[in-house]
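Service request form, structural biology core

Requester: graduate student, group of Dr. S.
Request type: structure prediction, single chain
Budget code: on file
Notes: please return the result as structure tokens.

Sequence provided:
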Amino acid sequence: MKDSTPPSLPQHIRVHSTKRFAVSLIVLAMNLSFIYLAKPGSFTNTAAMTTARNSHTATLLLNGMVLVAGGQTNNGSAGITSRVEVYDPMTRKWTVASNLKAARASHTATLLPNGKVLVAGGGNGSNPLPTAELYDPVTGTWTVTGVMTAARWFDHTATLLPNGKVLASGGRDSNFTFSSAELYDPTSGTWTTTSAMSVRRDSHTATLLPNGQVLVAGGENESILSRAELYDPALGQWTATGTMTTIRACHTATLLPNGRVLVTGGAYSGTGYLSSAELYDPATGTWTLTGSLTIPRYAHTATLLPDGKVLVAGGYNQASGVLSSAEVYDSGSGTWTPTSPLATARYVHTATSLCNGQVLVAGGWNGWSVYFSSAELYDSGTEAWPPARALTNVRASQRPGTSLVDVFYDLISARSGSYVS
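Core staff response, request fulfilled:
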């Protein structure tokens, strides 16, 4: 029987190919090493944005990149910008994109099911804007879409509903806080009013629950609120739900994997800031206190990590000023643990969870005249892979000090659709 074993390559070809392959592996590993070699539980600087800004938006696109749009670049109405840029987690660089049609800050940005981003409301420094526009990542361009029924300048919310529409609620213009709400329909590109909330509010939170309803909590009008209510998209109606244990505005609300909502910090007066945190249970419609933050903070960020914990970073309080500290909430124990601080103390910044499990913190300011272009990455020590490189068994924790051989083994395992620990 004829031997079917293929002949060996000549020695000089084998050596040359092996060396070239090894060099390729090293280059590839260096390009990917930021995913694996970062110290878990730490912030590291990444490339700065091309424009310093706060009161901007940062939206994770379907391609894994982050779209940053608008914001305020310095004090005064002249500081409102239309500039846009995109962050690529693979190269850790920013690329300038097409400008917004209108310069705006304190707007909202919502990723639609079709991959486009809806930017709505905000202000230009002199006037509130009822206008809205759409960003198309495929063409990299903005197009004007329907005008909102109310010019929502400050602190409104925009929530993507299960039916693909977007619910905008509350906020205020130059003089008045709204109870009104409206719906954007991507199919028609128009806004229509829906029933109003039971109370006027801005600086509140709006969280989509697993049952498809939207929980709105806290905020302020002439006073700071503890009241909460639920919007039912099927009925187009609001109903009251349990009242928070504490009045609060400029707080955060994060949907946890167990279906509960974690609310943290915020303000209870013009100079009073909260360290308390509480949980909303949709099954009972009630709020219960959970472990308090290590320090009071407002205008901070709260980001759900791949392991189900929540990262809170930055913010402000009267005693300490602008904060660089960060802490992590464990819903299992109901406790907070300090983690490595931000490289730069900041508030009114953004924090975006990336597909690789890291968190991108960008912009913000120092509360006076310094607006930040700097950005940094938090590595939680857990890994989440983009869909095109998904591991079938994602590891629970990252290995610090991973070698280049380990990186290559991970890459091969990911591409073959398997991982062996």
